[in-house]
Amino acid sequence: MGYRGGEAVLDRICRVAQHLGDISTLYTMFADANARASFPLDPPGGVRAIDPITTPALSHLPGARALRRWMLPAYPALVAQLSRRLAADHAKAPIDLLVSTSSAAIKNLRPPRGVTHICYCHSPARYLWGQHAAYTLGAGGRLRSAGLNLFGERLRTWDRASTASAHVLLANSTHVQSMIRRCYGRESTVLHPPVDTAFFTPPPAGRPRSSRWLSVGALEPYKRVDLAIHAAGLVKAALTIVGTGSQQRSLEALAGHARARGATIEFLGRAAPATLRELYQTAGVLLFPQEEDFGIVAVEAQACGMPVAALDAGGARDTVIAGQTGVFFTAPDDAAALARAAHDCLSMGDVNAACRASAERFAVERFDRRFAEMIVSYLSPKVQAQARGG
Question: What CATH number has the domain bearing residue 322?
C-alpha cells in the first residue's frame, strides 16, 4: 500500500467516516509495514490511525506485496478469507455499514447479513476488463499475457458475479460508470474523487511559465510515458518526467534516443508535494497521453493554472475542457498528434483562471459533503440520528 490516488480517496473516506462514527477495521488485500503502523499515510494532520488493519494470511508471505499482480488467480480465495474474517468480527462487534474503495477485487468482499455495502469503484479491474495489452508490455509481459489468457475468463466470471455483494456502486467518473454498466450490467452514481485544490494553487500573478512539458505518474506501460518521450524527440522539446516504476530503465533508454534527436529530457523520480506544485506552476503543459479512469494529476495541474494535452478518452473527458483548459488528441499511438496538442496548449495564452475554475469542480469539500450525505442515507434511522448528533 503506497500513497497514490486511490489511497488519497481512502484517506478522505476515512476522514468523513470518522466524523460520523467509529471505524472498526480496515480490510485490505495487501499492506506494507508503514501501512500497518498507521493509516492514512498522509501524516501531518491526518486522521487518527486505524488499528487493526486486516489482510489475508497469504498476503503475509515474503514478497507477496511486490508480487501481487502475479497472484491474480488467488484473488477469489483472498477475498473469501477476508469475508470470513469480516463475518467473525461482525459477530463480536456488529457494524452498521461496509464501505469499500476498489480498483480490483476488494469490492467483492461479502458484507454480513443485513449490512449495506457501498463500493467506491475506481474501475473494474483494468487487466481483466479493458487494458490487457497495456498490462502485458515490458519485462514479464509474455508470461503475464499467458496467465491472463489462462485465467482471465474464469476471473471475469467470478468478478461479475461477486460484484453483486456491493449494494451501492459509486463510480469515480462517467467513463467508469459506463464500464460498470458494460462489465457488470449495473447502474452506478458518479462521485468524482477529491483533489486538494487548497494546496495546488496557481502561481503568483505575473509569474511567467516556461515552455517545458511535464509528465507526472507511475512509470508503468499504461501511463504511456513512452509516447511523451517519442513526442519530445519529434519536436526537440524539453520534458520533465516525475514518477517511478517498473518501466524506468526502458524509458531512460528511450529518452537517450530522443536526446540524440535534440530533446531535453530529465527524470526527477518521486517528487515531494511542494516540488510537484512548483512544477505545475512553472512548466507550460501537462502531457496526459493515457486513458485513465479519472486522472487526479490532470486536475492538480489545472488547479495550478496549467493546461493539459490529453488523450480524448477516459476520465479526461470529465476533467479537461477542450479549448479552455486543454487540448485533446484522438490517436492513442500518434506521438506527432500529442506534440501538436502540447504546442496548441502552449499557444493558448493565460488560462490560469479557466483552469482553476475547472479544478474547483473537484474540490475536497464537495467530495466530503456528498460522500457524508450518502453514508448517512444508508444508515439505520437510529444511527442516522447519532451521526447527525441527534
Answer: 3.40.50.2000
Residues 368, 357, single domain; the answer is: no
Whether residue 53 contacts residue 39, with contact meaning beta carbons closer than 8 Å, is answered with yes
Q: Looking at the structure, tell me whether residues 353 and 376 fall in a common domain.
A: no
Q: Tens digit of pLDDT for each residue in 281-303?
A: 999 999 999 999 999 999 999 99
In a domain, 207, yes or no: no
3-state SS assignment for residue 68:
helix
Please report, in tens digits, the pLDDT of each residue of the chain (390 residues total): 445 667 788 889 988 988 888 888 888 877 665 544 444 444 444 444 555 567 665 555 554 455 556 567 778 888 999 999 999 999 999 999 999 998 878 899 999 999 999 999 998 887 777 655 555 455 445 555 555 565 668 888 888 898 899 999 999 999 999 999 999 999 999 999 999 999 999 998 878 899 999 999 999 988 999 999 999 999 999 999 999 998 999 999 999 999 999 999 999 999 999 999 999 999 999 999 999 999 999 999 999 999 999 999 999 999 999 999 999 999 999 999 999 999 999 999 999 999 999 999 999 999 999 999 999 988 766 555 555 565
Q: Which residue has the cell 469542480?
A: 361
- Both 268 and 119 in a single domain? no
Task: Say if residue 90 is in the same domain as residue 22.
Answer: yes
| Residue 217 in domain | yes
Domain span holding position 294:
213-362
How many domains, the chain?
2
Q: Is 349 left (phi over 0), alpha (psi -120 to 50) or beta?
A: left
Q: Cα torsion at 311, 322, 5, 159 (round to 10°)?
A: -60
Are residues 151 and 97 part of one domain? yes
Instruction: Please check whether residue 200 lies inside any domain of the structure.
Output: no
202 within some domain: no
Contact status, residue 244 vs residue 270, Cβ threshold 8 Å:
yes
CB atoms within 10 A of CB 387: 17
Q: What angle do CA 129, 131, 137 make, to 5 degrees?
A: 140
Q: What is the spatial distance between Cα 282 and Cα 26, in angstroms, rounded to a whole number? A: 39
Q: What is the pTM of this model?
A: 0.83
108 within 8 A of 79, measured Cβ to Cβ: yes
Strand 53-54 relative to strand 26-27, pairing: parallel
